[in-house]
Structures are given as C-alpha cells and as structure tokens.
Amino acid sequence: MELKEQAKDIKLLAFDVDGVMTDGSITYDENGVEYKTFNAKDGHGLAKMAKAGFITAIITGRNNGTVDRRARDLHIIEVYQGVKNKLPILQALMEHYNLSFSQVAYMGDDEPDIPILEKVGLSACPADAVKKVREVCNFVSSCGGGHGAVRELCDLVFEACESIV
After folding, report:
1. What interhelical angle do 40-51 and 149-162 show, nearest 10?
2. Is 89 buried (19+), middle (13-18) or exposed (0-12) by CB count in 10 A?
3. 101: helix, strand or coil
4. CA–CA distances in Å: residue 17 to residues 39, 69, 97, 113, 161
5. Which of 95, 107, 116, 141 is the most buried (most CB within 10 A)?
C-alpha cells in the first residue's frame, strides 16, 4: 500500500534508456551505426502518461538518434542524451516544473542511476537491474529492461493517480 501512496504524488516520470527502455543490447552495423530495439507495450504506457498530462523525460548517458525518434513518437519532450551526471539534469527539470523529489519517479538499471534513485519519491528498476540498483529501489519491476518494465511503472502510477480523481 505504501508504494501506491508514493505513486499518487508523481508528476514527472524519468527514464534511463539502455537496460530500461531497451534490453541493454547495443547493436552496430558494419558502418558503426547503432541500433536499439524498443518495446511497443512500454511505448503505449509512456504515450498514455504523456496524454494524461504527466511530464515524461529521458536522461541517458549515451547519444543515439533512435532515442530522439522514439521520444518524438511517444510525445516525450524532455530528452537529455550524453549525460554522465544525471542528477543535475533532473534537478533542473524539477526547478523548471516547480516539483519536489517526492513528485518524481525514476527508472534506472545501473550504478550511474543510483544518485537519482536515492533521492526520488518513487525509485524503480527493471527486474534485471544490477544488484546495487535493486537494493536502493522501492519498486522492482517483475519484467526486465525492454520487456515491459517501463509499462509496469507507468501502469502503477497511472492507476494510483486515477484512484484519487
């Protein structure tokens, strides 16, 4: 029940990409072009959140054009790539939207995500996140990265907020 109470306050959902929105695989062709595979169910969850008025964001350490394309398709307007220290970006977003940490959900899967996960109101990770991340999260998805973890978090927040309307 405590998890649903935390989810009720969420206004901003932010996500890492590799290992969260994807399964963490990085595929290159012979020309060095990088490819990513995204999950349609995760995408539907993100689009539903954006349509319902939630702020959705991507904060990722890598740079890839497919991330920009996916964000456009899902109406994610806050996209930050090539970010090694993610917390200052999140804090700037919070300031821009006048939000506190308790109003933020973040899903990450690896050690660079821990500084954010330790601060946000709803810290989440895929089932296959590294152990150190799973230990700091208050929501561990039953799904792996790129296989429904994002959708599971979106559904949790959407349903919690829907119950207060």
Report:
1. 30
2. middle
3. helix
4. 12, 13, 22, 11, 24
5. 107
| C-alpha separations of 30 from 33, 34, 35, 36, 64 in Å | 7, 10, 12, 15, 16
Q: What residue has token string 């959407």?
A: 158
- 119-137 pLDDT, tens digit per residue, is 999 999 999 999 999 999 9
The model scores a pTM over 0.90: yes
Phi, psi of 158 (to 5 degrees): -60, -45
Q: What percent of the chain has pLDDT over 70?
A: 98
What domains, with CATH codes, occur in the chain?
Answer: 2-162 (3.40.50.1000)
